[in-house]
Amino acid sequence: MHKEDCFYLGKVVSKYSFKGEVLVKLDTDEPEIYENMESVFVSLGNNLVPFFIDRCRLHKSNLLRIDFEEVKDEASADKIIGCELFLPLSLLPPLSGDKFYFHEVIGFTLMDEVHGDIGVITSINDSASQELFEAVKDGKELLIPISDEIITKVDRKNKTIHVKTPEGLVDLYLGQ
């Protein structure tokens, strides 16, 4: 399994017990759907290694307490502290309407209400406080905020996202 075939689930943040249980900080709005998993991929070095789960359950709000088959003592748990967990993309629940996963819109065309085609989405920048579409049009990069106020329609069939950008934003990048 390769990382590009998976989605990031969370990160092992601490040990929970002397029996090797660990706490995972989940990166999800719906932590409860991951309560009864059978396995996950753990990023060890440059590899994704399958780890099988004896038991997992929610711990507080967005922490998952996991008892792995392979981790039965503190020393083993120490080895995976800080490791990221991944699941196959096929396990993501399908979204409809104007909701989307970032990975699924790469390659979609941004269609602005005023300017028309303003570029193809090449990636999503989610490292800042405001998530951004990174798009390219005629060799120029555009950064378009991802927000409900800007996105008017997601058309999966035609691979387009319709947007209403703030006045002057597109001109800033494309000089139209």
From TrEMBL:
This is Ribosome maturation factor RimM. One of its GO terms (cellular component) is ribosome. The PRC barrel domain binds ribosomal protein uS19. Binds ribosomal protein uS19. Coiled coil: none annotated. An accessory protein needed during the final step in the assembly of 30S ribosomal subunit, possibly for assembly of the head region. Essential for efficient processing of 16S rRNA. May be needed both before and after RbfA during the maturation of 16S rRNA. It has affinity for free ribosomal 30S subunits but not for 70S ribosomes. Keywords: Chaperone, Cytoplasm, Ribosome biogenesis, rRNA processing.
